[in-house]
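Section: protein folds

Sequence with per-residue tokens
===
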Amino acid sequence: MSTAPISISDYDRVAVITGADSGIGKATAVALAEQGFDVGITFHADQAGAEETARLVRDRGRGAAVRRHDLTDLPRAATVIDELADELGGLGVLVNNAGTGSRRPVLEMDFDEWRKVVSVDLDGAFLCAQRAARRMVAAGRGGRIVNVTSVHEEHPRVGAGPYCAAKGGLRMLTRVLALELAEHGITANTVAPGEIATPMTGQEDRPPRPGSRAGYPLGRPGDAREVAAVIAFLAGPGSSYMTGASLFVDGGLVLMGPQAAGALESGDWREG
């Protein structure tokens, strides 16, 4: 077992980002390209969005490859990780960003809906991380695994039972990966966003409006680029002594309680 720090020059400067056709995944692809990574991009339905992400990566002088990735088709979907790594010539960073959610109370939910969300958000991330870690271990140069969870990895939300269960499970899986992969120079961490202005939250990929969320300490949703900057940090050399951590990128939302903060219609709480 090596105890020397692993720098960015040691592991492959190739990153695979799942769900990179819009939002956080797209912003992360651009951020990592600017850090000198070639980027593998996956999408579920929006091929045009994925191709646009690839164009942005290439505009920054880096290579890009695109694959459709249907995480409802497991375990076969995870083979995309190997395909992208083969095409781009290695794999140093995996960002598990693809996911789905639900808006139904547990008492009204059927098993198929429960399983679909948990399978995509937890089983899919597990299989992709396993594929990536096996390649990193075999290469012997270390690597980074970043799992995008949510503030709901720790804090519950009404109507999001399977989503919260899956994100909480992914947080704990990440900690197990951190322990098991440390001897190989591979770190594993989670990034836990709050409400981010992306298509997944019913918004557009544009800067959010200040003062639009009375119950949030910073008063607005986050921008996808703000989350991408944290993911890029965890993918880079500056995070070499961080593993098993959860970084919340939420504008202070968890300080208020995510469920209650979204229901506040005024900023009177600031008066104490």
